[in-house]
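Sample pair:
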Amino acid sequence: MQNRYDDAEAAPFEGDPLALRAYTSRLLGAEPGLVLHGGGNTSVKVRTTDFYGDEVELLYIKGSGHDLKTIGKNGFAPVRMAPLLRLAERASLSDTDMVRELRAAMTEPDAPRPSIETIPHALFPFPWVDHTHADAVVAVSNTPDGTARLRSLYGERVILVPYVMPGFVLSHAVRDALAGRDLAAVEGMILEHHGVITWGETAKESYSRMIALVSDAERYLAAEGANERIARAVPGDDVVGLAALRRAVGRAFGGAVVARLDHRMESAGFASRDDAAAIATRGPVTPDHVIRTKRVPVVLAAGGDADEAVAAYVEDYRAYFGRNDDGANTQLDPAPRWALWQGHGVVAFGASAKDADITADIARHTAVCIQQAEALGGWTPLGERELFEMEYWELEQAKLKKGGAKAPLAGHVALVTGAASGIGAACVTRLREMGCAVAALDIDRGIAARFEGRDVIGIPCDVTDSEQVTAAIEACVRAFGGLDLLVSNAGTFPPSAPIAELDDRRWRATLDLNLDAHHRVLRAAIPYLSRGFDPAVVFVASKNVAAPGAGVAAYSVAKAGMTQLARVAAIELAEQGVRVNLVHPDAVFDTGLWDETKIASRAASYGLTAEVYKTRNLLHREVRSADVANVVARLLSPEWHATTGAQVPIDGGNVRVI
């Protein structure tokens, strides 16, 4: 592990301890082998004056919910040291009461909630304290003789503290471990099965000690041949099987989930080890991970039945809860958060793409730690009881009782064609706002970079090509685990021409994109929609279906044919629970089909201004892409679970249609 402290980079922060604290925190956060997604804590003690001008010592500690990888000055909570030291001397204190007292000791009420490990940080008689969950150290710790190995590795350079729960009990464990110790020759503290703490008189000293201690553990693992035991294998490819696994997990979860498949050779190798089911189901790397990963993954054999595997997992989880619950807890959902899919890789699940990605990262590091520890004599994490106490920690139960609004389409996966601009782009944006993960398809190759975020993937695709359509839908399933919602939108509005002048090429090209392509997309999507959650399809048709105009025969015929396709699909797919509806927009001018010059020309041909032309409907309102997207998203949502085969005009009111 490299020491990334740069004196030149740090120089601008030297006069600002909090800015320097944020700088070295980001250095730690940049190392996934140290902290993952909000894990770890850093702090700095400063002397300042309060509102009344009195001198006060403050502990600035990472706020709950902030990530060391990106933290800035506003990510730290200022807490008075005096109350913290008094709290540490109390004989007992519930974690709920501790959190309240920590909040009361803050000097800025709008700052983030202080870390649950605030009191231990206060106990170190040094201004700078760093705490990480270093993979290499925990891998050594999680072995049958982990304590002896750690002592052999570090000697008296570190203080070893047997595992205790985070929270107030950890405060006492740290207090007792520090009592009477001469820290002059001590570089850090190792909380067994949990992590590493270092400290220093300067930010550089504390950070450098962390890097040195973890590097020692990494070299130890390498010397013991642990890295050579990381298995690798060529993964299989089964997108339908992935969709089936996602569906089974989602049913246990109680709703749609995003599934992230990690099919790197290392992940496929771990999942395919002969002993994978035995070693991966002993427990997580650190108890903190159980909140994200649950105690163990579900194991699915190659070619196995996902429903049976998940059902067995659910039964085992309920038994685990029953063995350990004292009647005071509310059982969490029994769904697994990750899976070992033998022959394929590791799959992570979450209520959103972000949640699934966090679990996927933890699972990736877990796989390495397990195999390294196994090479040292056997993966030996904490026991079931300790993990249950962490999973059902009173602070986590309090969060559960508070609940919170869930996005209406959280965990759902949508695919939108013609997504680079106009109605398609607006649909992508609205569906993401409603909680969807979205695959955005367009013939424009710029679609790959059109949207940003872990919940969206842009896929270049010519929907008139069946092979490209199939490949794009499979890419969607590989990215998010399945497909629930389809917006079939891609199309074109060709130049006007009377039937007498409409040649075969233009006729055929218009029908190929505006009709045939929608059949191709729907046909390729059905195997996944039938395995989806609240599956629904919306076709974007046109006002021209009900009220065609001269000069647009090919367009009108194609949209009418699409309408019939959708109506038949509504009939055929109802037994599979798939709803199919249509929208008929008109005069939507903020799309790639129109520009100001074209709008002005068309308006002039009617003797109108551009503004009047855009609002020539009964409501005198301009219809925008976002208006269409709002209706599409509503039709796709479970709110409309009893509607299929419907046709909704979005035209501001058209006399000919009405």
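The mean pLDDT is 95.
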